Amino acid sequence: MENNRRSFLKFAGVSVLGLGSLSLLDGLTSDDVIAASGQTSAAEATYKQAANALTAQRWGMAIDTRKLNDRICRNMEKACHRLHNVPDLENKKHEIKWIWDTEYKHAFPAKTDPFLAERFEHLPIPVLCNHCANPPCVQACPTQATFQREDGIVLMDFHRCIGCRFCMAACPYGSRSFNFRDPREAIKNQNTEFPTRMKGVVEKCNFCAERLAVGKQPACVEASKGALIFGDLEDPQSEIRQVLKENYAIRRKQNLGTNPSVYYLV
Amino acid sequence: MLEKALKGSKAYWLWLFALLVIIGVGFGFYLKQLDFGLGITGMNRDVTWGFYIAQFTFLVGVAASAVMLVIPYYLHNYKAFGKITIMGEFLAIAAVIMCILFIIADLGQPMRLLNVLLYPTPHSMLFWDMIVLSGYLLINLVVGWNVLDAERNSVPPAKWLKPLIYLSVPWAVSIHTVTAFLYCGLPGRGFWLTAVLAPRFLASAFAAGPAFLILLCLLVRRVTNFDPGREQIQTLSKVVVYGSIANMFFFLCEVFVAMYSQIPEHLDHLKYLFFGLHGHGTLVPWMWTAMALIVAGIVLLLIPSARKNEAVLAVACAFTFIGIWIDKGMGMVAGGFVPNPLHEVNEYFPTFPEVMIAVAVYGTGFLILTMLYKVFVGVKEELAA
Ligand code: SF4
Ligand code: SF4
Ligand code: SF4
After folding, report:
1. Where would a tag sit more exposed on chain A, N or C end, judged by fewer CB atoms within 10 A?
2. Best of B114, B137, B142 to disrupt the A interface by mutation (most A CBs within 10 Å)?
3. Mean per-residue pLDDT, B259-284
4. Which residue range(s) make up the domain with A25?
5. What pLDDT is attached to residue A46?
6. Is the domain of A76 the same as that of A194?
7. pLDDT grade, residue A121 (50/70/90)?
8. Pair (A34, A44) in one structural domain
9. Which tens digit of pLDDT belongs to each residue from B331-373?
């Protein structure tokens, strides 16, 4: 952050873009920035890979809707949100969510049929970031704060994000949340292993990149009682590929060309 | 020349002071926004852009519309506009500065704005928008100022300005095109996903911008000794009506495509704006008001006897300006976000602090505009004396 700030000021100095007045703004809010960054210095955009790290050419997830119920969905959401310090905000307008469940008709608005199989009427469908192979959020982000890793995971650098929310307009799945206020007051039991965010930045599911780096499966997968299968989509031998071979699966809005990495077995 | 902005009547200073008060109040709210976060606005998880970005979009149009003076004057040698072209350019300067301020007001982490330049990202349209807007600001500053300076010294403008003036024409088009590209390239937003968005943005800009300029001309004539000229105002009014009709034409094209194809992803946004969706219709009265104003403006401007009556003309221009402002400044952005990608309806309406911050940005724009026009009129009065 300190580094950022210094180069920022240097840039402001030489800027010929008539934005010089920003340094005034910077002065006004610098305390705020330092206070904000102090607590999140642990935030790393990329995670150090341990020797036992799980790796893949392209990570993907298969969600077996036949094994889902409300309780499992609740547990997955809790596991993820607790682990990642996702605040529990009362005001729905400011809500942050990485994974949540919704009705079939909301998860798949274009596939809503009048005579839908009964099972789907009230089935909870978990939705999360699809880690699209062709992600519009990455394309839209003006600072590369949202970027795609080699293994397909779409990650965020909370320290670089300017909070323009262009990525949110670009994401066709509503997977992203914005910190409309300081989230820290609304985190009940803070997990010190994972960074908290500051107000004014965007966040979303990171496919548990920090867990993969130390050889663990994503938290929601662990909490799913076998309903979620996580693995390498490019490896024909992987479990996820076997599952996809044997079951019919659909993806959300695959017609948009984003190429989601999350499959739903129906 | 700048000193001319620092000499003025009591009314002039009073006006500047009033603007400063407005700016101060809005800035107070902005400090609150910096402290609390963008949660003090009406924006939410589903409607993530609101009033600020809408004003930004609208004002990019106002800025681009200066080209409607530059083209006739410099490209078609329409001498009458020589008298007011600088007014258009100065309006563009004030508008672009407001655009930049609105972008800053909208950022969650404004002190990191320059990350856009530190990590240049050509595949992001926002990066290009920043480049073209800054360039346009610079061009208009250099051109407007130097041409006025030459006029003051009764010499022809320097030769090197010519290429810059010609450049300003495509550049003006580019700022609004790139701004439209911010929206129309996003795969999941049916309301914006239309190739006609950029042309429509330009058309509405070429109506709203000159309409505002006419109002400014009438005002300048009233409060100063400089008369922008009846012919000039009448010609501008024709630009307004052409622009406004083209805007409505593009709009109806959009309506046709959505209604006839009946693809829900496209149709639902229009339904939401004009009839409400699933019982939510906050913007319905606004949208119909906007349409009524725009149409009334067109009708008044089309009737020659009405257009030639400057009182009626002023009303028609105000109608056009306000109508397009509502359509572009409220409907266009919020309409694209409702319903959301999961087809849920969560509405948006700006909050009081949000509106006050926006008013302060407009106040800043008017402050800059007033001072620039003061210089301009000062030079004109000096030459007339
Ligand atoms: S789901 Fe949305 S946020 Fe996730 S990668 Fe795709 S576009 Fe980006
Ligand atoms: S809000 Fe942050 S992550 Fe999203 S586009 Fe802007 S800078 Fe990138
Ligand atoms: S993969 Fe990890 S971050 Fe993503 S929803 Fe599951 S637990 Fe949360």
Report:
1. N
2. B114
3. 94
4. 1-39
5. 66
6. yes
7. confident
8. no
9. 999 999 999 999 999 999 999 999 999 999 999 999 999 999 9
User: Do A83 and A60 reside in the same domain of the chain?
Assistant: yes
List chain B domain ranges: 2-384
- What DSSP line would sit under A147-213, residue for residue? EE-TTS-EEE-TTT-----HHHHH-TT---EE-SS-SGGG-SS--TTSPPPPTT-EE---TTHHHHT
- The answer for residues whose C-beta is within 8 angstroms of residue B235's C-beta and 6 or more apart is B72, B78, B80, B81
- Could you give the ipTM of this predicted complex? 0.92
> To which CATH superfamily is domain B2-384 assigned?
Formate dehydrogenase/DMSO reductase domain (1.20.1630.10)
Give how many domains chain A has, as a whole number. Answer: 2
Does B117 lie at the interface with A, CB-CB under 8 angstroms?
yes
Lowest-pLDDT choice from A100-104, A115-119, B45-49, B299-303: A115-119
Q: What is the pTM of this model?
A: 0.91
Q: Please indicate, yes or no, whether residues A123 and A9 belong to a single structural domain of this protein.
A: no
A28 in the same domain as A78: no
Residues of B whose CB is below 8 A from A170: 186-188
Whether A9 contacts chain B with CB within 8 A = no
B35·A179 Cβ contact <8 A: no
Q: Read off the pLDDT of residues A171-205 as tens digits, 9 standing for 90 and up.
A: 999 999 999 999 999 998 899 999 999 999 999 99
Q: Give ∠ CA A186-A189-A195 in degrees, rounded to 5.
A: 80
Rounded-to-integer distance, Cα B296 and Cα A72, Å: 58
CATH code: domain of residue A229: 3.30.70.20
Task: With CB atoms and an 8 Å threshold, state whether A145 touches B114.
Answer: no
Distance (Å, rounded) from C-alpha B287 to C-alpha B293? 10
Let me know whether A100 and A118 are in one domain: yes
Query: Measuring from atom 1 of ligand 3, which residue has the nearest CA?
Result: A207
